Amino acid sequence: MSLIVSKARMETQIETNKVPIQLNECSATQLDPQELTKQLNDLGLHCSETFGENLKNNIEEVTSKIGLGCLTTFGVYKDNGEIRVEQLSNDVMESICSKNTLNKLLEERFEKEANGLWEEEGTGQYTPKLQVLQQIDNFNYLKEHAENFPYAEQPEKVIEQEATTADAIKEMFTEAACACTAVTVQGIDKTTLNATFSNALVGLNESALTKDYDVTNNRVITLLYNYNPKTKECDGVGIVTCNWHLQIKNYKKKKKKELKNKTTLTISARSVLYNDIDTLDAHYAMVMAREKGACCLLNSSIPINSKVNVFDSLPKANMDTFVHSLPCKTDSKYSDVMVFYCSDLQKVGFIDNTQSPAETTYSKSLTSGFMTENKVEISAEINFEIDAAVCKTGVKIGFNTSLTSQWNESQTETIEFCIPAGKRAFLYQITMLCAKLRLDTKTGKYSYVEFGKFMTDAYKTSDKPLYE
Fold this sequence. Notes:
alpha+beta, seven-stranded mixed sheet, 11 helices
């Protein structure tokens, strides 16, 4: 299938903004013929194509078919897949929205496979963000909701043929390398490609496979465009992900002459490349607001109730506020969230039954929802919670509200409670101030555009007034 390139991705080639990046020089991992021979032998391949001059010629044949380019890498990784909830300890689950947990799970999920000519120190300034952005759910979300998302992708394609095992594996290397270079648009240099596929067969062993060769693998490659080590700047940073699945029927069946078997190669690739860090940060903030913290790395089929912060006062309009607030339905130019702050109590009823010998029942219709000038819409896929407290006259009142698409419309319900003879009761509704925080995904700028109040569905009764 043909390559799909977004308009924003094509424009990335033209603009020349400089991206600051701190990198250390390192020795690039080499595609060593002797090491590749060992990997092939471990798979039970001992034919003349897997060693000596023939193997060297095969490697050169593969690289000659690939349109090399100018992008290099500062790290090659294998994505070990989504992390499921049952794999996480209780202490991690309790802090699932925290930055520390996210970094810890990123390190567990993405295994370093090879080095390019450069590397970031520690977790790095860009590597964690790029790894989050390339995650397939996040990638697809940004395709739909950010018109300036600079992506390219080669949709999944299937190649079926009759081939020897050696030829099938050679075809796998060729197609994967071609997909990586094509989907980056500018192409990848030879050093990066050699490093990327140097360990593609490591850990595979014939004894672990059935009669069929059936292996799924991937590479996640950070991208670096025109890096200047003197100025510590480059023209762009990005990431490319390639997934492949190779099946060879009756792979273990051996004959004196090399046997041709039915082979099926399924392959896909996707990439992003940013020459503007404000845009990268804006897209990262959009993803983190939608999937709080480490939730962006979990299996999407498992529901996680992420928590939305309630601030003591109106916080600054910045990324930290944005990612800890409630995402709203938005268009492709802006991304909006609702910020909650200043939780409070609003008196909605009072019955003095102190002079009565009989129990009294009190009923009142109360409305909960957003009291704002414009309608607030929450996506049906969102399931967040507010878990906070109100402090009044030395009393701390905890409350919990589930935030789902039901809040797209205000709701009215009748509250009924009984006051015993000789008693009195005050009824309060828990409220919060709210403000719509807007992110311009092109400039990366944050601004408040609307203010209002959120009437929760949480209530409190008391036999004495909680405030004057």
